[in-house]
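Kindly inspect what follows.
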Amino acid sequence: MTAAHAKGFTDLPKQPRSDGKNFRSMLPYLWDYRGRVLLALLTLVLAKVANIAVPIVLKELVDTLDAIGQNPELIPILLLSAYGALRLASGLFNELRDAIFARVRYHAMRKLSNSVLKHLHALSLRFHLERKTGAISRDLERGTHSVSSIMNYLVFNIIPTLIEFTLIFTFLLISYDIHFALITIATVVVYILFTIWTMEWRMEFRHTMNRQESKANSQAIDSLINYETVKSFGNERLELKRYDETLELWEDVAVKNQSSMSLLNFGQSTIITVGVTLIMFFATYGVLQGNMTLGDLVLVNTFLLQLFIPLSFLGMIYRAMKHALVDMDLIFKLLDEKPEITDKPDAKDLDMGKSCIKFDNVSFHYQVERPILHDVSFDIPAGHKVAIVGSSGAGKSTIARLLFRFYDVVQGSVQINGQDVRDVTQDSLRTAIGIVPQDTVLFNESIYYNISYAKPNASHEQIVQAAKLAHIHDFIKSLPQGYDTVVGERGLKLSGGEKQRVAIARAILKQPQILIFDEATSSLDSKSEKMIQNALAEIAVNHTTLVIAHRLSTIIDAEQILVMDQGRIIERGTHSELLTLQGTYAHLWQLQQEESTEGL
């Protein structure tokens, strides 16, 4: 079992991936619109060229005005026109860049979101049973938006600033004394090194904040999902205490994060101020010495404003980008998770044939130290009904999960028509099997949607017919909104029996060749149970059926009954044969008969 399976996703003690690896992981999501990316970069370069040309024209304008003095007839119309045209061109190319890149950004978000959801569905049942829904949903939200943020920072902030710096540095180096270029590059290098050093020190605060925020979110959602349990035990204060303790840790780290940010901002401002002051000192000295014109002074000053203003924002962008990289790291670590159950490269679709099932010396455990099944062997001939009974924890439901191949056996094999389920595609295997679970979980959608989930293309008549066979049609019609009634999260607006009838209707609509009833009538009263049993008997005709039962009265017609205890089959036979044995089954039967008599 991998580390991912040992703990919830958000709590994984993995080292963060390198930023370079995360950037490389992001590139495939841009590939679909690589032409747009190149075009956006071209408009970006053109915008910066126009932006750099504006101060140069302004210098010529100032020098021309200084030369012509107060003569109003010599207005430099050409320079003024060029100045306006360049500013307009800079704005135009910037807006074109934004418009062109919008499709790239949002398509990448959509593609990544789809990839993550697809990957989550591909991960093993073990992962989903052990994950924390609230925490992972928060991580997914932050991670998906982080990709958009990083692309924005790169295309709209970092790359433009680097291009602008390169153009300005080159121009200063060629046109003026080397001091200007050296001071400019020294200021930028010191600024960047200081920012990176400080940010790396601060990132642990951000990591801790994310962990505590995800934990708090998970605790809040978990307490709301289990609202009835919290209320019934009167543990509202306990839930609030757990939530507040986590938020208290988050608060302490958040304060440290903000304090260190203030230190960073002050340091960045100091570096920029020193650099600007030194350059203006040399520029002023050059004018006084006659080596530079007033236009040169204006040009250098304008260049500094154009460079250092975005550079000051670059510090904030770098911080935000590092935060986004932390968030994106969560997404790509999730995508690195390997599914526990995968199809073999040569896997074929299941050939159902007559739908006979065989468990051949199957052993299984979730954890090595806790074995669940020991050398379990049995056959279910095509069209037969086999029931499994036993105490809680005996391994009954695990057998159903192995048949669905939610897990792979540790030893032995599970076969359908002689085909090992590990050798066939998961899609074809699960298409052939229908289940009515003990704990029915419904989508927070309409009853119609939940029934039709078994066959999304089913007609309205087919759905109504399935509901009738499940004896829930009359109940649905009695609701104000009928089939359009929304059942609430996890189906909380319906009773346990009503949810199970929806699950039965779903199984009827699917019309699978193999049926599994996992204590399918456990939430029904005796009258409803009798009606449902008749319905189940009807739909089970000519189907291979596996029944996991608690109430023995529901399985007396089974061709074979398996009695399990601590992961082993200890008795097997028909109802009458097992009663004759006077063993565990007969004892359970006697107890349930006495309970029924006492309940009358």
In short: The longest helix spans residues 236-289. Residues 1-13 have pLDDT under 50 and may be disordered. The beta strands are 357-367, 370-380, 385-390, 411-416, 419-420, 433-436, 514-518, 544-548, 560-565, 568-573. The CA atoms of residues 54 and 84 lie 8 Å apart.
